[in-house]
């Protein structure tokens, strides 16, 4: 089925949006979210430490900076029987749980499309936009993903019904 | 009025929740809000519903129960306005699931909305149905959805298509109805409709073979054309991602082609060109392009053989693997695992790079690479790869050591060319990561060591050296103390030196130091301490010169806080102290552990783990089906293991009681009051599943002589390598194989005058057994019994087998690391060993066929070591066949003449 769930989580590990495409009980969800967030955020912490060290190095060996490539951690984590594809945008983590046979790179691209779409609607989307317009974020997601499959990839097509509703209000 | 009951606005609620400092505070706020919402629901004001539901969604997202809002969703869905419906459907999708009864109520609303004049309402209903529909709903609403696939507006068509994927997954029977509609969607130009149509086709192909055939025949060419059009299309700003037009559609098309091409050479042939084009032309400097390439490679590898394309695919993977982006490397490793199946050589070429990935700082990459490496290993490269991995084990992160050591162990076990190499590598792994190694791994190591008799000396010395350096590695310590306990004498005397070894001088007290260290260290766990205690007992016999010191260490354990340790310490102490005469035989070296048995047990208990030894050293004799063998072994170990552990204390009491000559506890020797007798019954009952095979073995094990003759006691026999022999030799003669001349031959019997009257030992309607007695000359403890079996029935008995057992009163422990998965250390280190005050030896019967009214005889010899104090008692079982039907009779003989 492809996508099994989509999560948006802030830097503190609080869930800001959760959409599941398979049934999990409330307890299972809480546990799963907790585990995933811990795993991804821990990876990210390492990343940040590494980046700081790198910047520090660069400040002393400026010429080397261009030559040394920053070796970023990959965006995939295996957890239980899921593969989590995640990406951080400013203070928000976007995490998508997929089946094992899903194209991870495509999901990464999908996350980017989701962020771009939200950007287009909210104008530089941030955590608060999603919190206070939770239902709108869900409507957008509804236009993009149904039952774990991608419905639409054109930002204009995704947003047109939502803008229509905004006008009607 | 309203505002009082409906409480805060959504925005305010979110603010107050955000302001919470602690989880408890948050729970308080949520509880209050939930109460407000409930109150407002009871007010039943339609204007508040929208807001209530929005709040509920937020609360649900935070992980609080919101079931009380479910009915609100239904009310909102039923309301006429679009905004209400919209939030209602959203609530439905978030708060409800297909398993809830409430969902049944919504079917009607959905049906109405699917037929609504407003296409946006139809869209909402489709979306909800696509996300949560159950099998019943799918059946009820499928016709509506089928119709909507041909709707004029593409936005409805695409949603209807995805809704259908859920319907056919829920009810595969409905697939046929959607085949035509799905194939028409593939001709669409609208990307949304196309991508959903392709997904519907993919779904249909995977659940229905007819659909697969249909699409393969009718649609392959069309799909190839669509893919070509998209690949070659001019810049489309709406769908362009980094220079590639709609990569998502690309990927979906490639996925569908993969299913169509798999297993069909013609279809595969058709798509060769376009796949080659995608593989060569796609830009690979952006993620979108790589995603398409990745999918393309996967398709190339799945379709039927087109070797030139595969070379191309492998080259792309090679490029991916050397990419600096970790995401790309990750997918490359993922893909190479699949590529191994058809081109091992090509993947082997990247071995060095893959090994580098095992050492990557990124945990996800490491995990993938490690999986891949374990697939790459073969007989030729195992030594080199293992060396690399073990070298890395020394410096790897702590949290990675568990995975890494498990993989190394499974590789080493699977491919080890020789035992010494296996032992060496395992020692290295245990030294570096002994904390992380699973129980079955070190159990297996002990089994291998036990089987490599020429390496005992080498191994124990290597372990001794290793444990001095790495004493904090729990499993290393366990293996070391087991070996020191078993082979301590080889350690001290440098027996069996190999050419590669440096000679070391270890004194007896050095060896004991290691064990003492293990038993006294505060962080040693119970198993280790228990094993150390057993090792000490063994060493007390191996190193008589320092047995006083060993005794002191054992005595100290009497104060252990662990009950089990305390008890064993007391028992062992009494063995060391008072039973010098039986101690050497008691703590004799373990008989070689049976690898085959261990592997069967291990495979049984851990089906998932890779547990195959390269070559089991004991081959199962022919004629024995594998399954009964497993049964036998399981019975042989588990049942018996259970018995002594539950009554272990009694056993030793028995031992002491007998040795002190006090018979008060068991005076009269009434049969079966002791756990021992139950155990005996256990042994006998093992035969029940297949009497023909087991009878002899039970007889044998009961007749095994040996108060201190041989450790191949009753229980041991069952799970020792000899078992297959027993099982195959159904005739009574087979027992001589086992006894191996341990007993005097039957001809030695001296028949003195019958000083004792004959008895009728047993009588039933069909069978009578008479015993006549005679004493051996010179040994009053020994009695020869001639049993005569008389057939009282008109039928002939065939396969006649007589089994007899005598209760034993004393039991002694026999030490053995029976590698069971029981947590109780007692089970890990002991096997019960019963010394019988009564010993029984059966000679073969004169025949195993008992004709009608005929008789056969069989000689038994009973030795009563408590002669004069206790009288004989015997249990017996007779098995035979009448007209092909098994008959089993049991009885107990209490009427032996006094003084036997």
UniProtKB/TrEMBL annotation, chain A:
Keywords of this entry: Membrane, Protein transport, Transport
Subcellular localization, as worded in the UniProt entry: Endomembrane system
Keyword Ligase recorded: no
Major site of localization recorded for this protein: membrane
Native organism: Brassica napus
Domain (AP complex mu/sigma subunit): residue spans on this chain: 3-168
Name of protein: AP complex subunit sigma
Domain of life of the organism encoding this protein: Eukaryota
Entry similarity comment: Belongs to the adaptor complexes small subunit family.
PANTHER family (alphabetical): ADAPTOR COMPLEXES SMALL SUBUNIT FAMILY (PTHR11753)
InterPro entries: AP_complex_ssu (IPR016635), AP_mu_sigma_su (IPR022775), Longin-like_dom_sf (IPR011012)
One Pfam family per UniProt: Clat_adaptor_s
SUPFAM superfamilies: SNARE-like (SSF64356)
Keyword field contains Transport: yes
